[in-house]
Amino acid sequence: MSTPSPVTVADAPHPTVRWFLSLVLMTFLAASAAPTPMYHLYQQSWHFSATMLTLIFAVYPFTLLITLLVLGSLSDHVGRKPVIFAALILEILSMALFIKADGVDGLLFARVIQGLATGIATSVLAAALFDSDHHKGPLANSISPLIGLAAGGLLSSILVEYAPMPLHLTYWGMAGLMAVQALMVWGLPETAKRQPGALKSLHPRIAVPVAARRAMLEIAPANIAAWALGGFTLSLAPSLITAATGLTSSLNGGIAVAVLTLAGAVSVVTLRTKNAAAVLRLGTATQACGVAVFLVAINSGQLWLFFLGFLIAGAGFGGSFLGSVRTLVPLAAPHQRAGLMSAFYVMSYLAFSVPALLAGTMVRKVGLITTANGYGMILIALAAVALTGQIRRRNAACPVK
Predict the structure, then answer these.
(1) HSE toward the beta carbon, residue 35, CA cutoff 13 A
(2) Which DSSP state fits 290?
(3) Span 205-395 CATH architecture
(4) How far is CA 383 from each of CA 115, 245, 274, 377, 390, rounded to the nearest angstrom?
(5) How far is the C-alpha of 338 from the C-alpha of 166, rounded, in Å?
(6) How much of the chain exceeds pLDDT 90, in percent?
(7) Considering only Cβ atoms within 10 Å of each terminal Cβ, which end of the chain, N or C, has fewer?
(8) Where exactly are the transmembrane stretches of this chain (predicted)?
(9) In this predicted model, what pLDDT tens digit does every residue of 181-212 receive, in sequence order?
């Protein structure tokens, strides 16, 4: 495949390029979910605490967030293809580190490199997808990560449960796929010309415009609850299912991740044309209902209720995320949107990692079941606060005559 000369933006939609970039993005997120079904095996082999388990999980979003803020605009200056290639090489390195890990330090280092690679990839692939198709690219960027998380969690759990080399085979497969993708990247059309200012672009820019500050505060409880649920699921759900049901299959953790994230993807696609405020209210309420079912599952020990709770909560997560973004973005001028979305993702990734880390600490003191019950009740309370504010905002905008 020949490489066309670089252009500033795509002259017309490139469906093949869009599909390839979506696959690359899915691969990165699949790799990030791949360790989830293995966490309890690592824990059994190396005898570390739940606090350490959540730390191993949390260093990934922390690193991803810092990378996203620092390197998020780099591809605007050096081109999309070199940055995508570099991200793939770093991700392959992280897979090698997972394979070679023989203790907690090795896992932590692998997750840090993985967070670095995924942070770079998240920003450049979002830009490249928009370049490839201004209309369908943003939608692909919204659903590809969720599909990737589902595929990674599910396929990894199947390999861990039924294939040889349960702690290595998934990483070998991911590394091989990424190696092929790294070679194919150079056949893509370049959609960003080189331009000066690469070093200056490394300075993080976070700013919430005055017009968006009230909306940011109003969406915060629902957004924090949504991402906190995701962080808990990817770090502690497999261990929790085992503790509550007595079932030890690694497949259950992978199914939980897949159900939550696929439901989110379906929700985003289904609700993408609906009113943003209505979608946010629906997502917030649905997420709270899903967490309530999740709590019933914990205390009844019913596996099917776990999956039902994750299904409902995942649909709510998709609606809440979509509604939050569509509420915020129109409130910022074009030159303010990058800073606003940076602030939004700072909030989101902190919610994704910090509560899960605190939960891991609480497990040592009160146990996993009690911690999960408290965690779920806090998420429901946050959703209730958010829903109350959203209803008040709607009533203020449309007073009853």
Answers:
(1) 24
(2) H
(3) Up-down Bundle (1.20)
(4) 28, 27, 21, 10, 10
(5) 41
(6) 62
(7) C
(8) 49-71, 83-101, 107-130, 142-163, 169-188, 224-247, 253-271, 278-298, 304-328, 340-360, 366-387
(9) 999 999 888 877 777 777 776 777 777 888 88
